[in-house]
Amino acid sequence: MGPEFQDLPGRAAPLSSSGDELKEALLGVDRMRAGKIIRDACAAGSPVDCIEGLIIPVLEEIGRDWEQGQVALSQVYISGRICEEVVNTMLPPGSPSRRHRPKIAIAVLEDHHTLGKQIILAVLRAGGYEVIDYGSGVTVDSLVESVIRDRIEILLISTLMLPAALRAREAIARIREAMPEVRVIVGGAPFRFDPALWRETGADAFGCSASETLEAVRMMGGAVWPER
Fold first, then answer.
1. φ/ψ (deg, to 5) at 129
2. Residue 183 in contact with residue 153, Cβ under 8 Å?
3. Cis peptide before 102, with omega less than 30 degrees from 0?
4. What is the pLDDT of residue 10?
5. CA 214/CA 121 separation, integer angstroms
6. Each residue's pLDDT tens digit, 114-173
7. Any bridge partners for residue 132, and if so which?
8. Cβ–Cβ < 8 Å for 66, 214
9. Angle of helix 73-90 relative to helix 17-27, nearest 10 degrees?
């Protein structure tokens, strides 16, 4: 695993008119308007189709805009949270229509900076995914134990400092000893500074942004659980 998730697609197809309106509402932090746009656009279809066809493309485009310096990181986070709130009304936690498979978990390894994790978590949940949050300051021993116990299929590891990024290699190796099939996405500052570092950890992919991580999860999800 690995190279097939490295070169994720760039600019996707243009947004629909509803997508453009939703993006404008999200970047303007207009919760009521965003909720109305989503509900109106999705009235005739299933919530899952709505998420796939409207919400995810918009969040991915906002993520790409952040990569190009066109929006602030806070706007990425708030957009994800607003969509998460709306999705929760359409697909309440525990709903059988949510994506319970593949089984996904996220953790901040050995530090307590949680902003990146919270952004990824909000965007994934807005995409209809159920995600187990192992929190921050997670040790290698604790992470290995939790992933094996919960039979996680896709693990997201966030780090801020280089020592923690290097410790991810030990965690991934130990998890793979027990679960060779697990897919791992790493993210955080050390991997942006050194583009080759994620490969040295044994991860399958590096999520440079929320949109890239969402896209990698969707690709891996199709490979791990094609009959969703």
1. -85, 140
2. yes
3. yes
4. 47
5. 10
6. 777 888 888 888 888 889 999 999 999 999 999 999 999 999 999 888 889 999 999 999
7. 105
8. no
9. 120
